[in-house]
């Protein structure tokens, strides 16, 4: 029997068993479920074999976020059976695309941490390195963004509503105590496949469950709220990703979440270790743990606590083991990403943990008075990672050099890459097919280097431009056919990332407003039509980020009303950014706008993904732009460099109010926006203006606005020079090509003596 018919038969057998249905009568959810079950039979065999290997090699990733994308599409692609699945589904009366789109994308991550953690897991899996990655099973997921009435509205992203067909519940659980109540952490495992070999690793999600679901006595008396009190409180810990911590209750719930995660992971790691080894002394040579950003930091304290409490280690020895086993990767470096908790809150959380935390802090201070993890009765999660881990891993060479000057901790600059399959070949199939004609049959490092031979190839230059236009036409036809007058021949300028002041979407939008008013003043200004695409979510409690979205949407509406200018400037907002949306955006990107202030620009995932799809880039002078000396990129650079910004900050030399009054273009643009009639521009821009003045424009929006506008006029001219434009795109993909974990994946593991 051929594979197509085998797939159909297995789906039919599944439908008999679970739904008592014939395939001819099956609904889409039943066919989807049957297909997942069919694939899991294949994956399960490989998974079992992988678990039998490398007993003395265990690598762990602790991260609150992963962004794997849709599992069905990923698994079909990695099993290399898309054609057979398409044929089978067609025979069953369903299209491949409708079955893929039926699956909810796992809502267990958002932004750099999620992208980076998934990338690390995939790279280790490719190299047959036995890895278990931990996260939380967020039932309500990350918030789903809906644009309604000119603003962002947050709703729950219940990705588990139809159940997760790729997970299985484990037969064990870990019991712990939080705030005087006992609860349990239940594990759910999901497979992570390699796209090069048959190897399978594990993503383990923890769910918080009450030990006793309902109080019978309260229920029988009719006090339903009290009866379900423990059930509600215990289950709430893993309900949502990133709880609002602006109130005491919200912050305490966030702390509960982080402690729950730390406890479950650490005790599971010890449980797994002792399945194969008896001597705890060897644990530092057998495991390696990478901590992604600040949120899992309590795991380091819990690890030291376990060694001290249960295995008679001294604190000195336990901390030595921790520093040998744990490494910390810094994703976010903004001030609001450095979490602190009142010591009294930790005491309320768990008294035993509190005592260990205080004792560990005392030891660290005795070792070095500067190495405190508690200061002014506040616990610093950032300092826990600093002083209890082996190395601090940082992407940006500029940030790395800055931290190296200030902090006496072990640092390493590491060039992380991007998932080339997820954000390159599989999402940009026209590009993959086109490169194949030039002997580049995949997006591996060695194959992409061959692009360097195509600088002077006119057919390549013409073909690359043609496929980008085709991608844009397909995008408009499939997703935005009803959007008024999207022009596929315009420059598609994209900024797709979380909304945050440091990302400076506000600078992007103010620059667009400036160009709009320049055109109002001089309609003959030579600017190539440009479609500015924004996508990204604002944290529910982040006021100015949400105001920025309101401003962008009002600006979009105002420009669309202008009959003369709407042909030259167009704004599109793609709501609810996730992996699937990103995979749609990168293939249509002509230029990516990375405007993150260099002080906070540590990662470059969006830049790398856009460059791998042959894009130009306008960027501030930070991030990873200086990480590689050769080959050189051809970015459009704006703003001050990191050293100048740090001097400005220390000397307080930048005064936003003075700058506003002394720079005509800034003043005119802001004044125009403030004075616009509300019927024409439905946003009170004075809200943002007052905010910028009151906080002295701490993210340099006014300062960089004119330069961004001028740079876009320069970009507009360069776009008309096809050879120059494509030459720059080639420079950029060759530069981005040198960012890959590659040997670094092996080196991380080697450092742990595995």
**Total of DSSP H or I helical runs spanning 4+ residues:** 32
Shape: globular
- Find the count of extended strands (DSSP E, 2+ residues): 20
Q: Using only CA atoms, what is the Rg?
A: 27 Å
User: What separation lies between the terminal Cα atoms?
Assistant: 44 Å
Structural category is: alpha/beta
Blueprint (SSEs and pairs):
Layout: H1 3-18, H2 28-51, E1 58-62, H3 71-79, H4 82-91, H5 96-102, H6 112-126, E2 131-136, E3 144-148, E4 151-155, E5 168-178, E6 181-193, E7 200-210, H7 216-220, H8 224-227, H9 229-236, H10 248-276, H11 283-286, E8 287-292, H12 298-310, H13 315-325, E9 326-330, E10 340-342, H14 343-349, H15 351-367, E11 374-375, E12 378-380, H16 381-388, E13 392-394, H17 397-406, E14 411-413, H18 421-425, H19 429-436, H20 445-448, H21 458-479, E15 491-496, H22 505-521, E16 530-535, H23 543-561, E17 569-574, H24 579-585, E18 591-594, H25 605-611, E19 616-620, E20 636-638, H26 642-651, H27 656-662, H28 664-675, H29 686-694, H30 701-719, H31 722-737, H32 742-751
Parallel strand pairs: 1-2, 1-8, 2-7, 8-9, 9-13, 13-14, 15-16, 15-18, 16-17, 18-19, 19-20
Antiparallel strand pairs: 3-4, 5-6, 6-7, 10-12, 11-12
Helix pairs in contact: 1-2, 1-4, 2-5, 10-12, 12-13, 12-15, 14-15, 21-31, 22-23, 22-28, 22-30, 25-31
What key phrases describe this protein's structure?
754 residues; alpha/beta; nine-stranded mixed beta sheet; six-stranded parallel beta sheet; 32 helices; 49% helix; 15% strand; globular
């Amino acid at each position: 029997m051929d594979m197509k018919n085998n797939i159909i038969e297995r789906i039919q057998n599944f439908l008999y068993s679970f739904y008592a249905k014939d395939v001819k009568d099956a609904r889409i959810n039943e066919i989807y479920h049957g297909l997942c079950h069919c694939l899991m039979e294949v994956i399960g065999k490989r998974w079992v074999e992988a678990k039998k290997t490398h007993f003395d090699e265990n690598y762990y990733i602790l991260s609150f976020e992963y962004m794997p994308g849709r599992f069905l599409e990923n698994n079909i692609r990695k099993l290399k059976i898309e054609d057979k699945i398409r044929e089978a589904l067609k025979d069953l009366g369903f299209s491949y695309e409708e079955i893929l789109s039926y699956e909810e994308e796992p809502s267990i991550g958002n932004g750099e941490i999620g992208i980076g953690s998934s990338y690390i897991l995939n790279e280790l899996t490719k190299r047959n390195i036995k890895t278990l990655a931990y996260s939380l099973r967020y039932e309500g997921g990350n918030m789903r963004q809906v644009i309604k009435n000119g603003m962002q509205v947050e709703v729950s992203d219940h990705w588990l509503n139809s159940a997760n067909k790729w997970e299985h519940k484990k037969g064990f659980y870990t019991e712990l105590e939080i705030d005087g109540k006992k609860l349990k952490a239940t594990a759910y495992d999901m497979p992570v496949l390699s796209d090069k070999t048959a190897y399978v690793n594990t993503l383990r999600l923890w769910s918080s469950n009450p030990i006793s679901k309902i109080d019978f006595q309260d229920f029988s008396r009719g006090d339903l709220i009290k009866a379900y009190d423990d059930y509600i409180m215990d289950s709430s810990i893993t309900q949502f990703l990133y709880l609002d911590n602006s109130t005491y209750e919200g912050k305490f719930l966030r702390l509960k979440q982080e402690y729950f995660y730390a406890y479950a992971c650490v005790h599971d790691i010890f449980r797994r270790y002792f399945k194969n080894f008896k001597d705890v002394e060897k644990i530092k040579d057998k495991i390696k743990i990478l901590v992604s950003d600040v949120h899992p930091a309590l795991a380091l304290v819990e690890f030291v606590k376990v060694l001290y409490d249960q295995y008679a280690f001294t604190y000195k020895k336990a901390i030595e083991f921790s520093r040998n086993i744990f490494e910390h990767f810094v994703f976010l470096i903004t001030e609001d990403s450095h979490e602190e908790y009142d010591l009294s809150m930790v005491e309320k959380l768990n008294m035993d943990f509190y005592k260990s935390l205080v004792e560990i802090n005392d030891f660290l201070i005795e070792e070095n008075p500067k190495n405190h993890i508690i200061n002014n009765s506040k616990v610093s999660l950032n300092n826990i990672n600093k002083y209890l881990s082996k190395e601090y891993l940082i992407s940006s060479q500029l940030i790395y050099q800055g931290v190296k000057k200030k902090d006496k901790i072990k640092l390493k600059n590491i060039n992380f890459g991007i998932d080339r399959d997820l954000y390159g070949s599989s999402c940009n199939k026209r590009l993959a097919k086109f490169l194949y004609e030039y002997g580049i049959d995949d997006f591996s490092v060695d194959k992409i280097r061959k692009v360097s031979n195509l600088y002077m190839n006119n057919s390549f230059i013409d073909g690359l431009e043609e496929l980008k236009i085709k991608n844009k036409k397909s995008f408009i036809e499939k997703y935005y056919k009803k959007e008024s007058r999207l022009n596929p021949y315009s420059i598609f300028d994209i900024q797709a990332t979380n909304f945050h002041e440091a990302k400076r979407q506000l600078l992007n939008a103010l620059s667009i407003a400036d160009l709009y008013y320049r055109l109002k003043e001089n309609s003959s200004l030579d600017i190539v039509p440009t479609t500015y695409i924004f996508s990204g979510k604002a944290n529910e409690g982040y006021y100015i980020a949400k105001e920025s979205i309101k401003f962008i949407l009002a600006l979009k509406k105002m420009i669309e009303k202008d009959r003369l200018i709407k042909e030259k400037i167009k704004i599109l907002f793609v709501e609810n950014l996730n992996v699937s949306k990103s995979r749609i955006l990168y293939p249509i990107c002509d230029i990516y706008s990375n405007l993150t202030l260099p002080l906070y620009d540590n990662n470059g995932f969006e830049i790398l993904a856009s460059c791998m799809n042959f894009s130009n880039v306008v960027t501030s002078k930070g991030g990873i732009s200086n990480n590689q000396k050769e080959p050189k990129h051809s970015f459009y650079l704006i703003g001050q460099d990191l050293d100048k910004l740090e001097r400005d900050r220390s000397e307080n030399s930048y005064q936003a109010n003075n700058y506003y009054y002394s720079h005509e273009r800034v003043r005119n643009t802001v004044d125009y926006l403030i004075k616009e009639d509300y019927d024409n521009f439905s946003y009170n821009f004075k809200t943002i203006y007052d905010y910028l003045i009151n906080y002295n424009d701490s993210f340099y929006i006014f300062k960089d606005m004119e330069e961004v506008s001028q740079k876009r006029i320069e970009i507009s001219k360069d776009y008309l020079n096809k050879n120059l434009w494509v030459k720059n795109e080639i420079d950029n993909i060759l530069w981005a090509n040198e960012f890959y974990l590659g040997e670094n994946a092996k080196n991380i593991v080697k450092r742990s003596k595995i």
